[in-house]
Amino acid sequence: MAFLFRHKTEMVDAASALPGRPDPLVIPTKHFVNGHTIVPPFPEGFERSVFAAGCFWGVEQVFWNLPGVWSTAVGYTGGFTPNPTYEEVCTGQTGHAEAVLVISDPAQIAYGSLLEAFWEEHDPTQGMRQGADVGSQYRSAIYTLTPAQADAAVRSRDAFQIRLKEAGYGEITTEIGSAGPWYYAEGYHQQYLAKNPGGYCPVHSTGVSCPVGLFAKEG
What we know:
globular; two-stranded antiparallel sheet; 26% helix; six-stranded mixed beta sheet; alpha+beta
């Protein structure tokens, strides 16, 4: 049993990852909640952001409820296997995290405010898990698409780390790196909690406020 636990929490390497498939999964293209597209093209001037914070059902709901967020989708990224299935990701042998793609209007919501929601939504000190959800697919991560996003992500992490330590938490384990290929999750995962209001949605927030004023207007 200990071996199985360790197996799921250790990152697989590219050579050992599952092979996946050449073709993407077939998904609905419209957001179940607001009817906007969840696939490109997106409105000109809108910003793409990618966050992973545990089970993507609840994380996506947090973001689609933010004013200024135009669309959201769930998917897999950060690993190696092309076009993986949910079952494959759950084995820990794809290297992917469950993640959320956020499409936002920067005139209405700053990237820093998205970071604030990300940090406050989960516990970023837990490594390869969130609560009882154990495995590399549940790791905390920010995948950036511009140098400005990368800078803001690092500064927000450093600012939040101070607050977490003051509250008795340990070191942040959040992965921050450049965004790689994005693979959409199966259609039934998209906006799951809007389709299933009583669905699984654990709360892993630390209750610590993120000092958004230090970085919200930048990036």
